[in-house]
Design goal:
Radius of gyration: 23 Å
Shape: globular
Largest sheet: 6 strands, mixed
CATH superfamily of the largest domain: NADH-ubiquinone oxidoreductase 51kDa subunit
Bound molecules: iron/sulfur cluster
Strand order of the largest sheet: 1-14-13-17-15-16
Helix content: 25-40%
CATH class of the largest domain: Alpha Beta
Order of helices and strands: EEEEEEEEHHEHHEHEHEHEEHEEEHHHHH
Structural class: alpha/beta
Number of domains: 3
Strand content: 15-25%
Number of strands: 17
CATH architecture of the largest domain: 3-Layer(aba) Sandwich
Length: 457
């Protein structure tokens, strides 16, 4: 039985432009620009240099600490290893590969003789070597989530909500790659030692629900489908856990603290390809949509494909396009250039034309409280806004601003069109800066005291 979560909003899903369109392969790009940071954690170190020949699936970036390796998505010659623009803003070290259009597979890609005979440790190792991260946008390394959850997690949930407007890549994947998805679910069930995994899926994807139920019945797969009412941000990990299990993740805690682990649909497919075929993450399904796109589509392309190629394949952008967003309209990031590459977490590229954005030059809060009712994290956005505007860091902390997941539900609900989410990003940075300054001051004080003690001795 599905449960409700507190707050949320119900924007028009805007999915009709692409939800009936099959995933199409993008014609191979002439070059790919593969950023060395496509995961939560420190950037990878490039393993190749200019002039090297590389093959599809060859490791070209190695991580240290928290992270995931990065692989070549096309075969060809390394043209540059240099900082390039990327979707998170600014520049990031990238490996630029000139495509030879041969699609030569690397010898490093080796399928196991019998994937079903692999131990849990071997499966986790395969997931790690494949460079899998949360492909819904969070980009947290999947092998860390799995190994950290084993022994604590009794409910494995697949996030099929895809609650952000416009995006339909997961919906199409469930319809078109059902067997692969179910295969990934089986491996997750085996790794966590659970009887079944639950896929939470919003009821605006009834065709996918039907297809999943048919396949599960036919294959006796350890998967249960949980239809959910449409509500944004149902795809937030904490909201999905509550919608599926009825249990709330406490503030500052993770789903694992209530025995849950959540995985994205395309991450689950990537887990299947890694374990069954030894294939690393080299491609991504991206929804290209919005009023600025001539012919919206779902496209699959090599990681590192310039987003300009995606828009070209969709007939280009309308002349009066004024905004490009990487990600969904609620949580995505506005971009200043189409010269950014598709990364592991890029689920959609949106372009908007005409006069869709309704901004107000000098918005004034009318204290209606709608933002409070909309916030799924039980926060008080109207007060947080004032504290952030005035730089009141202690008050921001007391208002639990660090629990804000920047979902934008409050901004959507606000009749005054206050720039709430933007201000919370600023506010969170103020809190982080203060924490870093306090830590540095405490360490300096401790070092000074130790020095004083040493001199006294
Ligand atoms: S952006 Fe933050 S404050 Fe606004 S609704 Fe989402 S979690 Fe709440
Ligand atoms: S919804 Fe907007 S106008 Fe209403 S209280 Fe919140 S910030 Fe103020």
């Amino acid at each position: 039985m599905a449960y409700a979560f507190f707050g949320g909003v119900h924007p028009h899903d805007m999915k009709a432009a692409t939800n009936a369109k099959a995933i199409q392969q993008l014609p191979p790009p002439a070059e790919v620009v593969i950023p060395m940071s496509m995961h939560f954690g420190a950037p990878c170190t490039p393993l190749v240099k200019v002039g090297d020949e590389v093959k599809v699936g060859q490791k070209i970036g190695e991580f240290r600490g928290l992270g995931a390796p990065i692989h070549a998505s096309v075969s060809g010659k390394v043209k540059a290893v240099e900082p390039r623009p990327y979707s998170m803003g600014g520049n990031m070290m990238a490996v630029v590969i000139e495509n030879d259009f041969q699609d030569t597979l690397s010898e490093e890609v080796q399928a196991p003789a019998d994937p079903d005979a692999l131990s849990v440790e071997e499966m986790i190792e395969a997931v790690k070597n494949a460079g899998i991260v949360g492909m819904g946008g969070a980009t947290f390394p999947t092998h860390v989530k799995i190994s950290g959850g084993i022994g604590k997690v009794d409910t494995v949930i697949i996030n099929g909500a895809e609650c952000e407007p416009y995006i339909t890549g997961d919906h199409r994947t469930l319809l078109e790659r059902t067997e692969e998805f179910i295969g990934g679910c089986k491996y997750l069930a085996k790794m966590f030692g659970v009887d079944k995994v639950v896929i939470g899926i919003e009821v605006n994807k009834q065709d996918a629900i039907n297809k999943l139920n048919e396949t599960i019945a036919k294959t006796q797969a350890p998967v249960a489908v949980e239809p959910l009412r449409c509500r944004y941000p149902q795809g937030g990990e904490k909201q999905l856990c509550q919608a599926v299990t009825g249990k709330q993740v406490p503030p500052g805690a993770l789903p694992a603290n209530i025995g849950c682990a959540v995985f994205n649909v395309n991450t689950t497919c990537a887990i299947y390809r890694a374990i069954a075929k030894g294939m690393p993450v080299v491609s991504k399904v991206v929804t290209v949509s919005g009023s600025g796109v001539i012919e919206p589509k779902n496209l699959e392309c090599p990681i590192g494909t310039p987003v300009s190629c995606l828009f070209d394949e969709c007939g280009g952008l309308k002349d009066n396009t004024y905004k490009i967003i990487a990600g969904g309209p609620m949580m995505g990031m506005a971009q200043y250039t189409c010269d950014i590459p598709v990364g592991k977490g890029t689920g959609s590229m949106l372009a908007f034309a005409d006069k869709e954005e309704q901004t107000v030059a000098n918005p004034q809060c009318i204290r209606c409280g709608k933002c409070v009712a909309a916030c799924p994290m039980h926060l008080e956005p109207l007060f947080m806004y004032q504290y952030a505007e005035k730089g009141m860091v202690d008050e921001l902390n007391e208002a639990h601003i660090m629990d804000c997941m920047e979902c934008g539900a409050c901004a959507y609900a606000c009749p005054a069109r206050m720039h709430l989410t933007h201000m919370f990003k600023t506010g969170k940075q103020l809190v982080k800066d203060k924490m870093a300054a306090d830590k540095a001051a405490a360490e300096a004080k401790k070092a000074a005291e130790e020095k004083k003690e040493a001199v006294a001795k």
